[in-house]
């Protein structure tokens, strides 16, 4: 299979941060959600993939071709990629109609009618300057630009940030329309994990510069669960050997404990008296990144879960 995007062992070092061993792929017909906390490495990864910064290690292939920062291959391929970054690329004095002129000059396959239709759909007046637009409207303008030159791959960095829920759903509808042809793909970095639950096929999580998990979205939202229990229940779960050493992910809070169950059906069979809810992507990420495990002794079921437990 030829991936639209394939990253292998990508690395980038700064004085205070290191991206290390990042690997992910976007297949034709696939939307990949890219998640993680602020400063985890999402934007650094995207900039390295797009040749905005040079990677120190690893390889990037776009549409099957190896590319590097500043290479002729990268320059030739960029027209096949629609890009929405978390910062506006257009000058404050630029009007919406000027953005259309930029697209016409920059892209051979620029679709002026598509751009005009999207601007109308987003209520972007042609004479409005970028400086007069809200952050959410700027994101809509950037998305309209990205979708109007017939890209095969969209790379989105917080594309729904600053939008109200209705506008976010409208953007997601546009992305579904984009994906309807089947041979296209999206890499979508976002903090709004509920959006990914509506559109993503795969979810990749990065933390402190490294990939923490990569899973089909349905494996998270359909199969995984969160058990809501007491500290004494955690003791019983761990003593039963349901989790291999180091695999349990537990978060303690004021009203009990949450335990991540990768297979909520197996968990429910093993512990029928402990309620287990379907996991959201946010649940899964939070418990994976912040959860800890502990071999709580049965002799002290009322004691607090050991906060010196092994971190992830």
Automatic annotation (TrEMBL):
**What PANTHER family has UniProt attached to this entry?**
ABC TRANSPORTER ATP-BINDING COMPONENT (PTHR42939:SF3), ABC TRANSPORTER ATP-BINDING PROTEIN ALBC-RELATED (PTHR42939)
Give start and end of each ABC transporter domain.
Answer: 2-233
- Would you tell me the protein name for this molecule? ABC transporter
**Source taxonomy lineage?**
Bacteria, Bacillati, Actinomycetota, Coriobacteriia, Eggerthellales
> From what organism does this protein derive?
Adlercreutzia equolifaciens subsp. celatus DSM 18785
**What domain of life does the native source organism fall in?**
Bacteria
Q: Does the keyword Transport apply?
A: yes
Q: Does the keyword ATP-binding apply?
A: yes
Pfam family, any one: ABC_tran
Q: Which UniProt keywords apply?
A: ATP-binding, Nucleotide-binding, Transport
Can you name one GO molecular function term for this protein?
A: ATP hydrolysis activity
* Cited PROSITE patterns: ABC_TRANSPORTER_2 (PS50893)
InterPro entries per record: AAA+_ATPase, ABC_transporter-like_ATP-bd, ABC_Transporter_VariousFunc, P-loop_NTPase
